[in-house]
Amino acid sequence: MNALRMLRLMIVDDSNIIRRRIERSQQIDRLEFVGAAANGVEAISLFASTDPDVVTMDLTMPEMDGVECVERLVALKPELRILVVSALADKATAVEAIARGANGFLCKPFTDRQLNDALAELLQDV
Amino acid sequence: MKSLLARLPAIRGPLMVGLALTIFALAVLLPGFQLAGRLDDTTAALRLVSEQRRQADVIAAALGGLRDRLENFGYVDEPLNEVRNSIAELDALVRTLRTDPSSAGRFTVSASRPILSEKALTTDLEAFESTWEHFRQGLVPVAAFQGVPYADSESAGVKLNEGGRMLSNESRKAIANARKDGVRMTAALGQLAGALEAESARLSAYLRFLMLVALAGTLACGAVLGYFAVSRRRQAVMLADAKRQTEGILQTVKEGLFLLDPQGRIGAAHSASMRKLFKRDPVAGLTLEELLRPIVPEKSLHTALRFVEVLWSERTKENLVKSINPLQEVEVVFETGSGGQETRWLEFDFHRVREDGKVAHLLVSVNDVTARVRLGRELAELRERAQSQVDTLLGVLQVNPEQLRSFLADTDTSMRMINAMLKDPTHDDAGLRRKIESIFRQMHAIKGEASALGLTTVQSRAHDFEEGLKSLREQDVIGGGDFLPLAVRLDDLFSHLESLGELVERLAQQGLDATTADETGNGAVARAAPRVTEQARAANTLIDTLDQLVERVSQDRGKAARLVTHGLDTVPEPYRRAVKDIAVQALRNSLVHGIEPADLRQIGGKPPTGTLTVHFKDEGQTGFRLVIEDDGGGLSLRRIREAAVERGILTREDAARLDSKQLLPLLFRAGFSTQAEADGDAGRGVGMSVVAEIVKDLNGRLGISSGEGRYTRLSVVLPALGTVQSAAVA
Predict the structure, then answer these.
(1) What is the model's pTM?
(2) Same domain, B526 and B435
């Protein structure tokens, strides 16, 4: 148990507002923001350069959607922790993202507290 | 082993007892076995020693016999053999006692142990050996004799030969020794026998002790086993009790409760309500898929099964996926026996059950939430209805009751006309299209006034109706049946207007009517003050309506405008409705198209607030003149030309050739608008055609003039009252 190890956070969301919101609101001591991507394709290339440990992932995005992006990232780094952050319009897609390897789901819109609780739960055993 | 014990706590105690018993038995029985062997050995040795105790006497007798025979020249082989036998037997005794008993072919536990290993015994044995050795030395010469001891000659007769003499001497010596050594040896043997007896007694006592220990141990083990038996019995009772309680819970609980195993099958222990919830029996052994397939749609089923799959994966954070549970509130449909269907809502909840840290089962609870869902929907419906009533009420409260009554009365007439038109059995396409235009104008007038009064609920319904008409108008072929949906919408508007009327009546009864509302501070209401003439009241109502229209539309459009009226108190009763309708449409057009936004006005050197003027004048024999004017941007001939070309009314060449006198009348054509998108206030190209229609119906005249960048003026002349045929028709 290495409680002091910093974890790198990458935010993937096509909304600038949500990206900034997550970056500003997250207050997990061990998390260090390393970059944000606006779609799946950007996320894959940003992943290569920043090697994050934790990812928040939107589902509906242009270029490459969240489900496919989750699958690719997990293939690249199986121990990656992924929190899907999306509206609850389509549960089937959300379930699919989890089935492809995401670890949890946070429903938009969310409060700061909900975000931090979800991140804490996500990193509980890291 | 450890994990085995951990898994089977019930048998751990007895197993430990069995193990202890085995170790104890080995610890007691092995020495016991050894002891028994030694006791056996000792007894055998004692027997041997006892047997040989008379050997000294036998030797003494044999020696005596030998002497007698030698004296009488008898046969000596017999006593000699007895001596030899005795020697052999005593030697054998020594050998036996000295040697390893196993060599004698007898099984013993400790192979290397001589029979007599005890120190006391060894001493006694050595004492016996030394006496025997001494005794033996005297006997050996005698026993060694071979041959015949006599010489037989004719001369001397029978006498001892040399060997005989020697034998006689040796036997005499031996007899002398035997007296002493025989006694000593016998004593030594007695001693040895005594020691052996003592040893035997000691071993017996030891063995008895061991037997007692074994007995005690067995009793103790028996007691422990007895204790375990009792405690197991108690456990069994408790287990049975717990099982009964579980059974009781599962039989009684309203929730469906069951466990899913990793193969996705429902376990045998499930709540009895499962049968009721899913209307099938048995439930145990089914997969979740088999349980759900008959009652939920394929897509939901697929998502649900995928979700359950995900719960087995350790990657998934149980608490972070609860919100995407697709079975959180799932609609299920059961076929009822009579061919009907029953719809219910079920709520599924999943919990992981871990054993040894691994997910072993999923605990699933199912609730019938039909009542909750239905109540929720009813509440939402009620809330929506209440909200719309509140909206209506608020809308009504803002309206002067006089205005509202007049609006409702006018609208009622229009509605009846529309209804009559809808029922009119016209079948040819041109007739139907004319019908659409007429209905359109009527409805547009209603919408206009509703908008002026801020009755948004009426306005939006009228707008919807217009949308329906619009799509009908765009159809290539129109059939009589196409009007049916419109009748439904009309009915909706009818009942809405009716409820509005009831509301007004109720408000009047509650004392919120104009006559008592002065103190409320509501300006619109206060203006309709009591004790004024009917004529003045009607004029005030008209002015209020127009004021409100201007205020609302200018706010909506982000423009600033004020309304100036002249002579509206002189409008004769038969023309009131017409004047109102014309003014509403014309003012609306002016606000939407004419008056520019404040910043543009300032650039053009005009005051930021636009001015709208409505002027009514009785001109005697000529009739009445109504002039509605704005100081806005005027009519753009360019845009009228463009719109005319776009709408296919004119070719581009014709449009370019026509002058303003020829172009402006286009504005009064039905469906002509320079606005691309229709909204609540303008753009359908109906407003001005409504004006033209009203004027035509009253046999009046209509003119429009405009100064680009300065004004637009609509001028209507209505005939003097004697010449009006049907003022009510508008």
Answers:
(1) 0.46
(2) yes
